[in-house]
Amino acid sequence: MAPTVPPTLTGRVIRTQSGFFTVETDHGNFTCQISGKLKNSVQRSVSKDTEQRGDLVALNDLVTIAPYDTNQAAIVDVTPRRNVLSRVAPGASVGTSAESEKIILANTDQVIIVLAARKPSPKPRALDRLLVIAEKAEIPSIVICITKMDLDKKGQVRETFKLYEEIGYPVYYVSALSEGQPGVDAFRNVLIRDEYQVSVLTGPSGVGKSTLLNALEEGLRLETKSVSDATTKGRHTTRFSQLIKLEAGGYVADTPGIRSIAPWDIEPEELDGYYIEFRPFVERCKFADCSHVHEPGCAVIAAVEAGEISA
Fold first, then answer.
1. For the chain, counts of helices (H) and of strands (E)
2. Which residues, in sequence order, are bridge partners of residue 88?
């Protein structure tokens, strides 16, 4: 190991895959694993009746590492996170003790939810779940991006997402593979507002996240795949999570596509707080624990009936 490298370094986790982490530091990138001491300290801090059910180290964590070779090190500490964008881990049974947290990104400045106009067709319920996840995490900026607009032959997609624009979410419409790449330049400006901004692209498999990134940043050459003709579902292209440093400034996280989406650690009674269109009405409900389903004096139900909230 070169003598100029200090015994410990601070850095940013820019890639995660199968228990290995790439950490970017001022002395270069290091391939790391979590130190046994850190694992043990976390286990001791968790009560005997509770299991550690989240990721100890996640993409975009700020960490302290102890190098032991030219480009290898152990992660010995994790800086407390500003926020955590997470969901129920794939394969976990929702609502059971086996349920565990899967962190999509730590310390997130901006979430960009990506859906396709077609192939696969957009599912508003999946979008709603992702919006709830982002609102729960208190992410400062939440944006919606609709790709493959060249496949919207009947011009119906903008009408579908008009509601989200009306309640305050910016929606960008792009066609990364069409001549002139309509919408790509406007969307690029969303990613480079700040040279330190960290954004994440998240959404179902096959919506074109990697294709979009290739269009935004020349020379990336991220792998892309077509949607299955048999199932009309997307194929996983990104198999690991990574942070990409943009030439114009800032980072963007490329994460594996999501097949199933379940919010993590949200109780039914708090759900109304994460639907921004509900917020002006919730406090007007007659009952503090109103479920907005059947109670008399529910201001949310009244707003739906009056057309102030979309059904």
1. 7, 13
2. 101
Question: Omega into 120 within 30° of 0, i.e. cis?
Answer: yes
Domain boundaries, the chain: 9-80, 85-254, 268-305
Mean pLDDT of the region 229-255: 71
d(CA 175, CA 252): 19
So what's the pLDDT on residue 236? 44
Residue 227 DSSP code: P
- Using 50, 70 and 90 to split pLDDT, how confident is the model at 2? low
- Rounded to a whole number of angstroms, the distance between the first and last alpha carbons of the chain is 62
Backbone angles phi, psi at 252, to 5 degrees: -135, 135
Is-contact 58 14, C-beta < 8 A?
no
Q: Report the pLDDT value the prediction gives residue 44, as an integer from 0 to 100.
A: 63
The pLDDT tens digits of the residues spanning 24-68 come to 999 999 999 999 999 988 766 555 444 445 689 999 999 999 999
Higher pLDDT, 31 or 4: 31
Helix (H) or strand (E) holding 44: helix 36-45
Q: What are phi and psi of 212, to 5 degrees?
A: -65, -45
Q: By the 8 A CB rule, do 240 and 15 touch?
A: yes
d(CA 5, CA 208) in angstroms, rounded, equals 40
| Backbone phi and psi for residue 50, each to the nearest 5 degrees, phi listed first | -125, 140
CATH of 9-80, picked from 3.40.50.720, 3.30.565.10, 2.60.40.2470, 2.40.50.140, is 2.40.50.140
**N residues, the chain:** 311
| Mean pLDDT in residue range 296-305 | 94
Residue 155, number of CB atoms within 10 A of its CB: 9
pLDDT of residue 255: 79
Element (H, E) at 20: strand 20-25
